[in-house]
Amino acid sequence: MQPLDSEKSLIKISHCSKDIFASFVPKYCPLCGQSLVYRKLEDAPVSIPSPFVNGHRERCSFLLKPTTGTFLSGYDGSSDLHVGITNTKGLVYNYNEAGVHKAEYGWEQCVSIPLVQPDMYGLLKQWDLYLEQFSVAEIWQPHRYDEHLHNCYTYGLTFINCVLSAQKQQQLSKSEFTEKFVIPRTRKASKYITIYKEICKNGFFTVGHPSEGGGTTSTVHLTS
Ligand SMILES: [Zn+2]
């Protein structure tokens, strides 16, 4: 296995009635060996952006990563995920059985959901203070932790709802937030992981036409 840069885009081309994924634009079709000339627009290479970002460079975002290992190494599609919230300086606040942590590293390969528009200056100014004050509350003491009912996800979502209520906006239920913001991104990530792993193993990955493109959708377990 030859690891690729986790933030690198992959390439999709069409040839031999198949979608062919690779890490660079190939000169020859890996299936038939013909030289590739992109005459028609629909045959032109398409870039598949990486769904992963360095969480420490994301400000005011909700982050997801596997509890152990990374998405592209060790994650099997159903491993537990861990959740964090970044402040404006890339410090990742996260809650587990040992309480709230402020991580300066360890969140380099994440799925990120930005929570604040860049023009919301008032909120951006208050964000770090909100997050800090929220995190010292008694409910985030280690003994309050419960793997299923009071975990990292509860912490992240409760913070989002505190911000929403301070902005006089409607709160989000766990299922609303998960379906609207989390699932679309984890679904994309899991397709990318499938393609990425095949490319590392074989150099390319093909899917027959017409197709929704080769990823299996994985279940997400949000705990700790
Ligand atoms: Zn071909």
TrEMBL record:
Segments forming domain MKRN2 opposite strand protein-like C-terminal: 45-199
- What domain of life does the UniProt record list for this protein's source? Eukaryota
Pfam families associated with the record: DUF4796_C (PF16044), DUF4796_N (PF22795)
Coiled-coil region(s)? none
> InterPro entries, from UniProt?
MKRN2OS-like, MKRN2OS-like_C, MKRN2OS-like_N
Location of the MKRN2 opposite strand protein-like N-terminal domain: 8-36
PANTHER family assigned to the protein according to its UniProt record, in alphabetical order:
MKRN2 OPPOSITE STRAND PROTEIN (PTHR33963)
Q: Give the protein's recorded name.
A: MKRN2 opposite strand protein
From which lineage does this chain's organism come?
Answer: Eukaryota, Metazoa, Chordata, Craniata, Vertebrata
